[in-house]
Batch of 2 targets.
Target 1
Amino acid sequence: MAGYKPVAIQAYPVLGEKITQDTLYWNNYKTPVQIKEFGAVSKVDFSLQPPYNYAVTASSRIHIYGRYSQEPIKTFSRFKDTAYCATFRQDGKLLVAGSEDGGIQLFDISGRAPLRQFEGHTKAVHTVDFTADKYHVVSGADDYTVKLWDIPNSKEILTFKEHSDYVRCGCASKLNPDLFVTGSYDHTVKMFDARTNQSVISVEHGQPVESVLLFPSGGLLVSAGGRYIKVWDMLKGGQLLVSLKNHHKTVTCLCLSSSGQRLLSGSLDRKVKVYSTSSYKVVHSFDYAASILSLALAHEDETIVVGMTNGILSVKHRKSEAKKDSLPRRRRPAYRTFIKGKNYMKQQDDILINRPSKKHLELYDRDLKNFRISKALDRVLEPSCAIKTPEITVSIIKELNRRGVLANALAGRDEKEISRVLNFLIRNLSQPRFAPVLINAAEIIIDIYLPVIGQSPVVDKKFLLLQGLVEKEIDYQRELLETLGMMDMLFATMTSKESPSLLQHNASDGFLENKKIES
Amino acid sequence: MVEEESLRVVRCGGSELNFRRAVFSADSKYVFCVSGDFIKVYSTATEECVHILQGHRNLVTGIQLNPKNHLQLYSCSFDGMIKLWDYTDGILIKTFIVGCKLHALFTLDCAEDSVFVTINKEKPDVFQLVSVKLPKSSSQEVEAKELSFVLDYINQSPKCIAFGNEGEYVAAVRDFYLSVYFFKKKTTSRFTLSSSRNKKHAKNNFTCVACHPKEDCIATGHRDGKIRLWRNFDDEKKYTYTCLHWHHDLVMDLAFSVTGSSLLSGGRESVLVEWREAAEKNKEFLPRLGATIEHISVSPAGDLFCTSHSDNKMIIIHRNLEASAVIQGLVKDRNIFTGLMIDPRTKALVLNGKPGHLQFYSLQSDKQLYNLDIIQQEYISDYGLIQIELTKAAFGCYGNWLATVEQRQEKETELELQMKLWTYNKKTQGFVLNTKVNMPHEDHITALCFCNAEKSENPTLVTTSKDGHFKVWILTDDSDIYKKAVGWTCDFVGSYHKYQATNCCFSEDGSLLAVSFEEIVTIWDSETWELKCTFCQRAGKIRHLCFGRLTCSKYLLGATENGILCCWNLLSCALEWSAKLNVRVMEPDPNSENIAAISQSSMGSDLFVFRPSEPRPLYIQKNISREEVQWGVFVPRDVPESFTSEAYQWLNRSQFYFLTKSQSLLTFSMQSPEEKLTPTSKQLLAEETLPTTPFYFILGKHRQQQQDDKLNEALENELVQLPLTENIPAISELLHTPAHVLPSASFLCSMFVNSLLLSKETKSAEEIPDDVSMEEEKESVDSDEENNFTEEVQDTNNTDLGKDIIHQLSKSEEKELRKFRKVDYSWITAP
């Protein structure tokens, strides 16, 4: 025979943002730590090696921060002019940065003075990166050139002069030591191969390119420029996969989450958006106080660092996994009860009979199953349930009414209990979705407790409050009706074409309100 | 070939199974229940209907096992006959003609050659218990007129009479009286409930009675839910009773277990209560049986109970209060709101079933397929509660979607309305809830229909409501990156001058939607939802609306409350014809242009079948039912019939079923009733084979060697021995020669035994036929694999017979090995 069927809890649509796995994941960060830098933060880069320090480039300084430090643990300030694009090598031991005067400086993390200086660009170097073999540096500059440098003897190996405007972003492949990509203000993104002296693929982005990003596999390229983010399939020779237009100002920075499943983009419109890399839909978005110039994610997405134009660095740390075994643990059955019969092998002719799985019932359902109606009502009127999930309370009241026992459940309550019921009514009576059920309950309460009114000042006060609430609601409805009447008159005088649809809409509203007043 | 007589209305969908207590066979293998004019024999293990005993000409009112032969069954009926049946073969043995209407039947072990029946004399409400002497006679039909009076002024229901303590006394209850008649003393004692004497509206009337099988103890059930246990009732002064009270509503039935150690009771709570040792605190429950318990019966072996429920169901319950089988008929005890529908997948009839459920009922096998729980809430069976009612349902898109509407209205303003949309899940083979719409309309929903056009890619549903709107719901994609999902949303809301929308209907190709607003029919374009045109006849509110089909798709039919049937031409937008007909039911045939309309008059209901293109009906059948017909439906036939007569051609491809106000499901048939009512499916006999002990195995093997035993024993004896006996001339001579010319038995014996021995020549001659028979039997016993094999054999039969035999040997060896595995060695360990 069918078992007990639990009470159906009416589900109401949740207004606002939909709760998904992604919103839960990306909201699970602490409140940001704000660090003031000297100028606009143009680049943030995480070291790939523990302890996952990050380099922040702002104005003419490069600060190295520890993961949880508020103060820089190291500063490189030997730049005559603005520094750009401080980037860690893969092993986290070297750091390279370009500068406004066209020089590129290579630092040892433990040292202070630059280890190497690469001279050759005539204008500001906005992008530098290490190649996959760790011994070369790629740089792009405002003199339209892209250069490849050898670290051991600090010499220029190659120069590519294919761009026709500033080269502002670049990225070296993580797999192939000879491949790297640069984006330029001439609207193109070019992939260069150090073995061929020329670009192998060139794609037209359509806007000045602000940021490029290669996927770890090297197969997909993401470019950002203007309001667009475009994803290119490099294995198909640079075919456009998707074009995303979700920001309403220029997109300035791109970043992949550690799993590679999500793509993040920062923009001058002060938003960071998170995309799924399978469907390229926005799954989450963050708001910041100022236009965003740089963005970086730590190992395992533990930290989000965002640099802004007003020189503020915002650092968000992931909340540590809550450990909830502080509660006193209930005594569990002994170990042998679990292993009993577990090592028995099924024989040929044995018939396996599974024990039917026990259906979990909520406490109020257990009470209702055993016809403890007052107990069930008490349980859902407890503040923890009544405030957090009023729909459960209302559903139980509705169920009791359906069973024809609501009056019995409400009767025979003392001052404290009845004031709890009245509190719930006062809080929720005016909500349209609960009103039909609660008005009925309120009528029953008034019928039951009318003879004893005046005995308890606390309860009397609650009744007066409830009365006031109902009067206020009626006044409010009357006002609404008056407004509606006026609007109807206005519409009646108009003879334009669009009026019928509006009229119809209002009429249905009016019908709703009429019903409310009747009740 | 079917003989084409006149068309008759026949009842289908079985009758109620819960009219009387079910009776178990002595070995608890079968359970019998009365069902209309028949008695049905069900297997308790498989729930299968094994036999239908038919022969009574009126409602069967009582069945009892023959106390002297447990393989026979007595039954009595309103037609005044008591019949004796052999239930294992389903054969009528004897008929005793009593003459007057028999209301109940009782048998007693000690009463020789007589049974007890309840008859009514003179006044309609006064019944007598009489004993009927059943004369011994060899003829099939015997008059049994020897009645002896036992008790007067008793209740009609057999629940109110019980025989106790091996037939020493009989107890009967009526209103506030308990009367006990002692057979030995031939005296009657009468007890009146003390509390009932003064009060006019006392609620403790007797409802049922049961007697302890071993002791002098009578249990009575009362309307206030109490059970009283009476003792010492042989003395009218010193009698005592104790009270058991758990039921809060009337006690419907009581039964003692075979040993008398426990008492079973049941009522409207649909909880079976077992009182152990007749003590108040010692009770066990089996709750949630689904519907009011009407009857309780106990098997003579004591291992099974059976409860009959008001929703036309019997539950076989094991001794330890575990339900083991459910025998469910067509649920009939509630109002049918949804009407009759056909599930396009299973071709099952779908209608309201148990509270909050839709039942899927197979018309072919006369069996309920399953119940779909729509409301999904705990059913509280209190009297006077306003329940949530399942009011509308519709199938769409070839059975892929099901829409249901449920409502509950407590007061004028408090209407709870919910629409649910269910999708068919191929994996689980059932309907799964997809979308739940709370308050889809402001007022009652009057109709809903799916757009079933073949070309429509997007499922569309239309609901009409008394709030003056009709809403169009479409299936939309609701998927995001996390999941793929579809859901239903409202696409369009239409209204016409704030009239109540009453009906809706899609045209066959789905291009037009007709919605009736009281007296006015509006036609909407289903692409743009533009109002195309309106029809108004000012002939009362539209009750039914349907489009013509196939060649008649340019017609729209509407039936109004004032008894006018209108047919509009959609091309000319004008009234084509109208007829004066008070249409109650109008159903289009999905396989043809025909439309069936059932009209209601003071005389009864008449059926008209017509095509929209011409106002002259194809077929008229007057007086199909005396009562009002509520719903009708065309059911497509699996195999088209071929009625040549023009009048019956409308039944060629579809069968018409209709449901009357008293919930009887009727249809039209031309076959004779016997032919019609025998189930076509092969009846499976529940054969419980013996446990395979080594003894059985040795014997079985022996027999197998002799006769290639493959089937079960019973079949084997019939099938294999019969041809043998026919072949042997000695046996045929023995059997066919009249007895008086035969020589003495001692002379014949040796000849007979010799004939049974297999001689050498016959053995060799019979070898090949033996093989063939083995093959055939294999085919019947084993599964498809074997079938393939036999086909192969047929192909290669002449070319390579030797190979086949080798192959077969390996098979039989395999079978032997399998049998070894099944051997039950538990007997060795047993002490």
Target 2
Amino acid sequence: MASVSLSEAEKVYIVHGVQEDLRVDGRGCEDYRCVEVETDVVSNTSGSARVKLGHTDILVGVKAEMGTPKLEKPNEGYLEFFVDCSANATPEFEGRGGDDLGTEIANTLYRIFNNKSSVDLQALCISPREHCWVLYVDVLLLECGGNLFDAISIAVKAALFNTRIPRVRVLEDEEGSKDIELSDDPYDCIRLSVENVPCIVTLCKIGCRHVVDATLQEEACSLASVLVSVTSQGVVTCMRKVGKGSLDPESIFEMMETSKRVGKVLHASLHSILHKEESLGPKRQKVGFLG
Amino acid sequence: MAGLELLSDQGYRVDGRRAGELRKIQARMGVFSQADGSAYIEQGNTKALAVVYGPHEIRGSRSRALPDRALVNCQYSSATFSTGERKRRPHGDRKSCEMGLQLRQTFEAAILTQLHPRSQIDIYVQVLQADGGTYAACVNAATLAVLDAGIPMRDFVCACSAGFVDGTALADLSHVEEAAGGPQLALALLPASGQIALLEMDARLHEDHLERVLEAAARAARDVHTLLDRVVRQHVREASVLLGD
């Protein structure tokens, strides 16, 4: 993780401020920074999204390719995650330096999607045991300003919302050989339902209280964090504690309650923004990195 | 590709451009605030980001420090979703390493490294979408990023690719034209003096045609220079307005 060096005085200042529910930039303990989301940023992909959360910048591209279903789940397609921590974020990520963080984040993403309800995998099946859609979700970390997991999960959700998978038909010959036919209309595609896709809420323990959406400086002051992956209904799909310090069980329960509360609000705003962006139609002004 | 004419009888290319015409270029400096310098460029459908860190102390072994000039370190990385077929590894493969070395050679020619002895300048280029001319887009983005970082350079470095089809030299090739297999020339130019920082050519080309292709690439690179100059002036104007000058 990109590190920032803080003096003792700065740490004390942050910790005391958090006790009073006042953070360095004026937010309360449960407030997110301003999030900017834009979809359809890269045109080579089936779906893409860019999320800017304070100084954290994430770009996610989803590519749909045809593959064979896994042996233990012959009626379903699947998702593959890959996280690239690019050297843009910090020179420490040059070469293989960013691989550790990338694998950790990818494993967390696999964990949170590893349940039956997050994504409808049966919709990705074309013909059982033979063909299915494989969605390669590639996350590119461009700038690191704290709270990576939240930003990445928001970006993955927005990219999956934006994904358009071409509609295919399976034609069977008399001999029994199957042919896959792509529909003629390039706009004829299936969309994924992202109602149950979870988002990660990271809570950092600073002093006696916990904060949502910590900046790099606040992360340097906290000893332990809890990552909770929450769906829009407030269902928790995965929970993990990270960090060097230890937490007592009451604080973990408090943090889970906070994360459910904060997660519902986050999902509601994300849904409304994604639907608003989509209602602007294909003629909307695409800003990308130029704005 | 069977049946695909790279240059029609009326002189139009596959995407409707003329032989010497560039694709639309849009660029922006100062995209990321945490890096020392950053820039983003779009050349047609090719999108590239460049980020510069430095000059700072040498990371890793001190023995690599050069006593009289700065060390320029470049990394080229292209996102896994940047090409039509998904790439397995963003960087570390041979092509990325080679591109990194070419970028390093280009910028060592342009940056005034004598002013920063025993230090290191990192240039990281990320290709978000590849539609031909990735080297040129990377060099142009990196020039803007180095300028954004305030590192002194001899001159702009402007790059462009060129090809040769049916007796005509084409400037700024797109992916379709590159994939067709004809000769491709990549040129990085310092426009004010006309000096060439990097020249690379693939495939066979008769030496009689070389001058024409080189001339087309140089003219296109000078056009790119006009655009980049405009972007830099716009950025400086905006920055000085914010500072209240």
